[in-house]
Design a protein that fits this description.
The protein has 728 residues and is an all-beta fold. It contains two helices and 56 strands. The protein is 2% helix and 44% strand.
């Protein structure tokens, strides 16, 4: 009986017998020449002692295709990988420094084949992707198999290897192959490319699935036949996932969900799929938080979270989670991609803060009335970006609203036309792209080069080039925001600075106090000696150094690896020993015993003038920690163990501090993301947690400690910490 072995096993997973590309001659374990198949990828999944290695291929600048089983054995679902994964592409010799190395941040599994598309945190610029074949393999055809794993002579080779294989048996999803000479597929080649040579370059025909492994180092058999997963029929699926950037979910009256993808540049719809399963309730309104998380209200005013497990080429989802049994009578919902959910019930609009990518009731906070009346005529609603929404009336007026977190809202009419009178649903993924569904089921498209100016002068419509003229059978639609924050399934994100100039990131569930995986430490180091930091939002930090220079640090990815861009020098003169941001627009800093208040005018300050005001709040601020737990309040601890709350107006005026605790708060760091959640680092490196039922009541009697259930009892050695504000 022929034994067929999986190709992604254990910590010494490796690949292929070594032949020069296109040659039928065995080369005795030597790798291919430099520059051969630059699209070939090494995929490292997990950490020792349970690490696995696979191979793959770059099919788009930010996407690698490989075997779905590399991410097992648990079912692989749409979303972030369960284990930290890193891809190296464009590097024939793994010991070299060329090519591109990036963590995987998203997986899109194929439901029927051992195939997955893995999105990289950053694009592999300078590496040309391989194209998927569109014609099937034929018996007797020669394919080149490539990979990075074990060979006949090496356990863990550092070079890409390749060998010729002859096509044999062909099924609908697989193709059997046998070596043309001494080639053999070994452990670690799972997901590696099987290539057809054409006059215009190689094309991807298959991915390595299994092998009899005869001749691999450590194996005693001689059978070297193998099986490839066919990819030649997946070109459309690959394009729909990697090229189409607009994603729209819908809910049909019978409770089934739909998913459509659109190429924003051309306006072409590439696919629409409809789920087989139904929600189990009658949907009323829908909002897409991210690619695999929806919020849906029912006709009974309940709110559900729906987790998408796959969306292309089949749409599947887990059993809906009821977040609230009542109180959600909203006829329209929309998420702005920046943590804010807008809901319209009758003439009343409410604004909510979403603190988790997978929210429960505790992660939907700040139920504040934004607009109290006058919205009854608005027949559709969509958030177009952070703090901005648009909607049209049945009279054809397209209205835009700016709804900041704190200041008064404002609105303007962008245009009035019969076209907008006939649109019953409008959605936007951001970047000035709007899509409107007509009463007859068409989907029109519009663009606005300046979507946040409350001015419709630049609004462009494409009446002769709609997405579709018919076929959109539901008025309940939601577009996935291009930038979807929050991105973590838990609600608290804490960044830190280490003594050796690295950044750290920790995700914590504020309800249970449990970390969502280990603290991630950047491999990169800051090009300066840091002193303290403040988190502005999920991908922007302000960090000052010991010489008084303030830098903006842009976070590229937090998991599975913490990556950041080159720090931007904003200004000198920032000798602050403590910094904290309130999540709205206010930055507080203490230099010596003097507190100053600044106003952040841009999400990513680029120059010093983007940090306005510089108001002296006062002197005498000698606390050794500082956090902004809510708007207009600063929290701090003193060397004698007091916990103090300082009310500070937007003008910088402050009153006598309130003593929340008279002793016991002798901590090295204090951070708060808001909502009464406090985290403190002890001098011994523990991270403790507290819950303040009402952080604005000037009293500490309602603060609950969890001494027997800390986040960690040790290990927090950072020199400074800062929490991402929930409302940021």
């Amino acid at each position: 009986m022929r034994i067929v072995r999986a190709l992604a096993l254990g910590t010494t997973v490796v690949v292929v017998s070594a032949l020069a590309a296109g040659s039928a001659q065995a080369v005795g374990g030597e790798g291919v020449p430099d520059g051969t198949y630059p699209f070939a990828a090494k995929v490292a999944v997990g950490a020792q002692p349970d690490a696995q290695a696979c191979s793959g291929a770059l099919v788009a600048p930010q996407w690698v295709i490989t075997a779905r089983s590399c991410f097992g054995p648990a079912p692989v679902q749409l979303g972030a990988p369960a284990r930290d994964t890193t891809v190296t592409v464009g590097r024939t010799d793994l010991a070299g420094s060329g090519g591109h190395v990036a963590p995987v941040v998203w997986l899109v599994p194929h439901p029927d084949r051992d195939v997955v598309l893995a999105r990289l945190a950053t694009p592999a610029t300078g590496v040309t992707p391989v194209r998927a074949a569109t014609t099937a393999p034929v018996a007797g055809e020669t394919l080149q198999a490539a990979g990075y794993g074990r060979t006949r002579t090496q356990w863990v080779p550092n070079r890409l290897h390749a060998a010729d294989f002859i096509v044999g048996d062909i099924t609908a999803g697989t193709v059997g192959v046998s070596p043309a000479a001494d080639g053999v597929l070994c452990k670690g080649d799972a997901g590696g490319p099987a290539l057809r040579q054409t006059s215009t370059g190689p094309e991807l025909v298959g991915l390595h699935l299994s092998s009899a492994s005869g001749g691999c180092l450590g194996e005693t058999g001689t059978d070297a036949t193998a099986v490839e997963t066919r990819v030649d029929g997946l070109a459309d699926w690959i394009r729909q996932t990697t090229v189409a950037d607009v994603q729209i979910y819908g809910a049909l009256p019978d409770g089934r969900l739909t998913f459509s993808v659109i190429d924003a540049a051309s306006g072409d719809r590439l696919t629409t799929v409809t789920s087989t399963a139904a929600l189990g309730f009658t949907p009323r309104a829908i909002a897409a938080l991210n690619q695999n998380t929806l919020l849906v209200t029912s006709d009974q005013s309940a709110l559900y979270r729906v987790d998408i497990t796959g969306n292309n080429p089949a749409l599947t989802f887990a059993a809906p989670v009821q977040v609230a049994a009542s109180g959600w009578s909203h006829r329209l919902l929309s998420f702005d991609g920046d943590g804010t959910l807008f809901g319209l019930a009758g003439e009343l609009m409410r604004r909510y803060t979403i603190t988790s990518a997978k929210p429960g009731a505790a992660q939907i906070i700040n139920n504040s009335v934004v607009i109290e009346k006058g919205l009854g005529a608005v027949q559709n609603l969509t958030a177009t970006g952070p703090d901005f929404v648009i909607g049209s009336t049945n009279a054809g007026a397209l209205r835009a609203y700016r709804i900041p977190r704190l200041d008064a809202w404002s609105s303007e009419t962008l245009t009035t036309s019969s076209v907008w009178a006939g649109i019953n649903t409008v959605v936007s993924p951001g970047r000035g792209l709007y899509y409107g569904r007509t009463a007859t089921g068409g989907l029109l498209r519009f663009s606005d080069p300046t979507p946040n100016d409350l001015n419709g002068a630049g609004l462009v419509s494409y009446p002769n080039d709609p997405v579709d003229t018919a076929g959109w059978n539901t008025a309940i639609l939601a577009a996935v925001p291009f930038t979807a924050n929050p991105q973590s399934p838990v609600d608290t994100s804490i960044f830190g600075l280490t003594g050796d100039r690295r950044l750290t990131y920790t995700a914590i569930d504020s309800v249970t106090g449990d970390r969502n995986g280990p603290t991630v430490v950047s491999a990169q180091t800051l090009p300066f000696t840091p002193r303290t930091l403040a988190v502005l939002n999920y991908n922007t930090l302000l960090v000052n150094d010991t010489s008084g220079i303030l830098y903006r640090v842009d976070i590229v990815a937090t998991k599975p690896a913490l990556l950041f861009g080159t720090p931007v020098n904003l200004d000198s003169g920032w000798s602050h020993r403590l910094l904290t941001f309130d999540g709205n627009d206010t930055l507080y800093g203490i230099a010596g015993a003097t507190m100053r208040r600044y106003r952040i005018t841009k999400t990513k300050p680029a120059v010093r003038t983007d940090i306005a005001d510089n108001v002296v709040v006062g002197d005498g601020f000698t606390q050794n920690t500082m956090a902004a737990p809510l708007l207009g309040h600063v929290l701090g601890t003193t060397t004698d163990g007091r916990l103090l709350s300082y009310p500070i107006s937007r003008e910088g005026q402050w009153s006598t501090p309130h003593t929340l605790a008279g002793s016991g708060w002798n901590y090295a760091s204090l951070v708060s993301p808001g909502n009464g959640d406090y985290f403190v680092k002890t001098s011994t490196g523990a991270l403790l947690r507290f819950k303040d039922t009402d952080p604005a009541n000037k009293s500490g009697t309602d603060i609950t400690a969890f001494p027997n259930d800390p986040v960690d009892s040790a290990g927090w050695t950072q020199i400074a910490l800062s929490a991402q504000p929930y409302i940021s």
